[in-house]
Amino acid sequence: MKKTPDGRIPLELTVGEVAERSGVAVSTLHFYETKGLIKSWRNRGNQRRYPRVVLRRVAVIKVAQRTGIPLADIAEALSVLPHDRPLTAKDWQRLSETWKRKLDARIASLTALRDQLTGCIGCGCLSMQDCPLRNPYDVLGEKGAGPLLLDGEEIADSD
Considering only Cβ atoms within 10 Å of each terminal Cβ, which end of the chain, N or C, has fewer? Predict the structure, then answer.
């Protein structure tokens, strides 16, 4: 196995070593590989080997997933970066700026949804003129007073 010039640090890792160091299951590493997020090669014994730099790449993937970035977006972002060198601070800055914009948009959307939920008492009373969640434009107001929806069930159309 290849090692650094001083012979202390292996430059290539087995799938088990990558899993142990990164805290990611072997099956997850295989999945990442099928999605093109990481790359390995086979040695003469047909065993997978990963470059040591894959550890940082897996760390970036895990951080991005934790923030809710879809795997397809992660793959797209990483596809322009080489697999044979560690991700640099400049690479991370570029990735994080892109993801930050997407997260900000998602946060704004979730905040708006949260604020709409605050205005709704959640019982389906439908006494409000406009409930964007259960009764947009008060279409059920024409069918009578009181709660017309019970646990997602709509009343039968009497027309």
Answer: C
Residue 104 burial (C-beta neighbours within 10 Å; 0-12, 13-18, 19+): exposed
Q: At what angle do helices 54-66 and 89-118 cross, to 10 degrees?
A: 10
Residue with tokens 């007073």: 145
pLDDT digits (tens, 9 = 90+) for 35-74: 999 999 999 999 999 998 899 999 999 999 998 889 999 9
62: which 2 tokens?
């895990």
CB–CB of 44/34 below 8 Å? no
pLDDT of residue 129: 56
Give the strand order in the sheet containing 12-13. Answer: 12-13, 48-51, 41-42
Look up residue 154 and give its DSSP letter. P
pTM metric for this prediction: 0.64
CB 148 within 8 A of CB 126: yes
Amino acid at 147: P
